[in-house]
Amino acid sequence: MAEDGESERGGDAVVGAGSMDSTESRWVFQDDDDSEIEGEEGEDEDEDEEEDETPPRTTLDSDDDENAAHRLIRTGPRIDSFDVEALEVPGAPRNDYEGISVGRRIVIACQILGVVFGDVGTSPLYAFSVMFTKAPINGNEDVIGALSLVLYTLIIIPLVKYVLIVLWANDDGEGGTFALYSLICRHAKVSLLPNQLPSDARISSFRLKVPSPELERSLRIKERLENSLTLKRLLLILVLAGTSMVIADGVVTPAMSVVSAVGGLKVGWSAIGEAEVVMISVAFLVVLFSVQKFGTSKVGLAVGPALFIWFCSLAGVGIYNIIKYDTSVFRAFNPIHIYFFFKRNTTKAWYALGGCLLCATGSEAMFADLCYFSVRSVQLTFVFLVLPCLMLGYLGQAAYLIDHHSDYEQVFFSSIPDGAFWPILLIANVAALIASRTMTTATFSCIKQSTALGCFPRLKIIHTSRKFMGQIYIPAINWFLMVACVILVCSISSITEIGNAYGIVELGVMMMTTVLVMIVMLLIWQINIIIVLSFVVIFLGLELTFFSSVLWSVGDGSWIILVFAVVMFLVMYIWNYGSKLKYETEVKQKMSMDLLRELGSNLGTVRAPGIGLLYNELVKGIPAIFGHFLTTLPAIHSMIIFVCIKYVPVPVVPQSERFLFRRVCPKSYHIFRCIAR
Fold first, then answer.
1. Angle at Cα 497 formed by Cα 345 and Cα 567, nearest 5°?
2. What stretches of 337-482 adopt beta strand conformation (E)?
3. Model confidence over 104-156: pLDDT tens digits?
4. Alpha-carbon distance 136 to 401, whole Å?
5. Contact indicator for 119, 250 with CB cutoff of 8 Å
6. Kind and range of the H or E element at 664?
7. Alpha-carbon distance 148 to 102, whole Å?
8. Burial of residue 456 (number of CB atoms within 10 Å: 0-12, 13-18, 19+)
9. 428 touches 118 (CB < 8 A)
10. pTM value?
11. How many Å separate Cα 512 from the centre of its chain?
12. Pairing of strands 635-645, 671-676
């Protein structure tokens, strides 16, 4: 009786809590037959959960909801007698950069340099080297043409595509291929895991768009995606392919950055050979992955000033070389020199595209690492610091090459003034280590997102910041990447071969991102179709052209990284298939409500005082394991709560909406369900 009264008081308390919740109206999708659910409730209970003794409500999650028609309506305050809201948790982490002091903004700027821009910042170490290995310099015009190609690649891919467009396709602060997939899943039921509930769409952070002129087209696309199993699978394959390329990128980036930086020792010290470069690179990589556990904030703050010095050094050396050797390199801003470069070199110029792309490596890291920082801070840092320094660096290298055609293999280190060589070499190696972290942190973010969507095994995730939710460290992935990196460096020590592998994985991610952003534009942004087609034709066409160049060289060792990416793709696809199969099996084997009615409120056993928590994957129904407990255990608790941890396609569930409590069976059974979202 005490428990019964307690349950009733809990229900009353919840009514009060529900009345205070959702005081602001918002646009949501609602079932056309929502008003009839209460009348059909008894029929639904036979197959699912009993609600006959609870007050009627409009947020019942039943099997019929999945097949009902939907319409976009404006809702008022929500009152749900058994939709218990979570308490406010003091000090809970939030990814919020508003209302912070100027000093804190300076600290964040240093962290951005250390976390986001290390990869793209070290591209001057190897871009020209790979380009001119494939297309040797036959005259000064070849240098100007290659420089023009690099400058416009920097402008079109990192600046226009990523900084100005793709960064805005974030999932409420989360970036990367899986964040795009999560964003699409929120607006269309395209997830293959059948555990969605109508109440998921009532989470306030879903933020579905209000009706607009383009809404009709958007709804047609939504209906097509939801009704086609082939399109759902194709979308998942695209996402998994992009994510596998990101993980492969997390292997190639440290190898490329560290080997190219350590290779500068051969310029300043003739006794250093290729074997010594490999040994030193391996030692640096071990140190790099060992300090990863200290977290993004600590490491980013420590290495951010070092990367700032690196960008200043890059610009300084570039200005020095422009003034000393040739100021005519500014002619490269005229794109006609790209045409002349291809006209003179034809096939070799096409081969050189793979090396040219390396100047844009790290573009995807800006998007994948977005969960660590705000969009505006990343954009401003790139436009006003990173891009000008990179351009000056490439202009200076081209000016040096005009007078020294044969020094293209180590053009950056060869162009450094004698008095500044060793300090800049030190800074370059530090910057290379920082760049290696960039894709490692991006890989952590992608693994976390893929785990949430049932596409990767669950691993231990350590949150390294109390304030910012996105800053994480995954020990198993960290050491796995380290081993793969060391193997890659030991098996392929040539900068050109590693550069080919680098180009393949970068372009793979870029093309997947282009396709997913196109879907976001059509389904969510609902912008003009001409703009969408222009985006796809320009960027996907450009990326396919680059991709054709790097694929031609896949047989020279870079195939290893393709095999690695395929293995990671298979792991994620099989895990997703197994998760789906496991859930469907649990749904088929769930206990019948008729059986529980026959057993009565004591469930055919002794009900001992206390509360029993039973974890399971089901969001509806009685799990089969509960029947095993009834037949095996001599007694069972007087109150049973089925606990289900459920990921929903939003970056953060509001604190007041994280828990759903449902009554299972009649009130006298004292069986409940808690869904932690």
1. 125
2. 462-463, 472-473
3. 666 666 667 766 787 788 889 889 988 998 888 888 899 999 999 999 999 99
4. 12
5. no
6. strand 659-664
7. 38
8. buried
9. no
10. 0.75
11. 12
12. parallel
Nearest one of 580, 463, 559 to 91, comparing CA atoms: 463
Tokens (6 digits) for 403? 């007078």
| Cβ-count burial 639-660 (b if 16+ within 10 Å, e if not) | bbbbebebbbbbbbbeeebbbb
Chain segment 261-291, per-residue pLDDT in tens: 888 888 878 778 778 888 998 998 898 888 7
Neighbour-count burial for 327-346, b at 16+ CB within 10 Å, e otherwise: eebeebeeeebbebbbeebe
- Judge whether 605 and 484 are in contact, CB under 8 Å: no
Q: What is the chain's mean pLDDT, rounded?
A: 78
Query: How many whole angstroms separate alpha carbon 434 and alpha carbon 272?
Result: 23
State the Cα–Cα distance between residues 386 and 108, nearest whole angstrom: 15
- C-alpha torsion sign, points 317, 320, 323, 325: negative
Question: Using H for helix, E for strand and C for coil, what is the string for 405-437?
Answer: HHHHHHHHHHCCCHHHHHHHHHHHHHHHHHHHH
CB atoms within 10 A of CB 563: 10
What three-state secondary structure class fits 579?
helix
- CA–CA separation, 591 and 583 (whole Å): 14
Euclidean distance between the first and final Cα of the chain, in Å? 31
Calpha distance 218→195 (Å, rounded): 24
| Model pLDDT for residues 198-215, shown as the tens digit of each residue | 666 666 555 555 445 567
Q: Strand, coil or helix: what is 604?
A: coil
Contact 612, 636 (CB under 8 A): yes
Closest CA to 608 of 635, 582, 628, 589: 635
Residue that the structure tokens 């380009």 belong to = 131
Q: Tell me the two tokens of residue 121.
A: 């910042």
Kindly state the tokens that stand for 631.
């037949």
d(C-alpha 370, C-alpha 171), whole Å: 10
Helices vs strands, H then E, count in the chain: 26, 8
CA–CA gap between residue 1 and residue 670 (Å, rounded):
11
Report the length, in residues, of the chain. Answer: 677
Q: Backbone dihedral region of 90: left (phi > 0), alpha (psi from -120 to 50 degrees) or beta?
A: beta
Cβ pair 475, 293 in contact under 8 A? yes
Residue with tokens 């596998």: 244
- Judged on CB neighbours under 10 Å (0-12, 13-18, 19+), 439 is buried
Count of Cβ atoms closer than 10 Å to residue 674 Cβ: 16
**Those residues with Cβ within 8 angstroms of residue 43's Cβ, 6 or more apart along the chain or in another chain:** none
Cβ atoms 407, 401 nearer than 8 A: yes
Rounded to whole angstroms, the Cα distance separating 255 from 486 reads: 8
Q: For residues 553 and 556, give the distance between their C-alpha atoms in angstroms, rounded to a whole number.
A: 6
The answer to whether residue 489 scores a pLDDT higher than 70 is yes
Q: Packing angle between helix 215-227 and helix 229-262, nearest 10 degrees?
A: 90
CA dist., res. 83 & res. 88, Å (int): 16
Q: Which one, of 153, 192, 177, 521, lies nearest residue 338 by Cα? A: 153
Pairing of strands 462-463, 472-473: antiparallel
Q: What is the pLDDT of residue 299?
A: 57
Q: Is 23 helix (H, G, I), strand (E, B) or coil?
A: coil
Helical (H) or strand (E) element with 608: strand 606-615
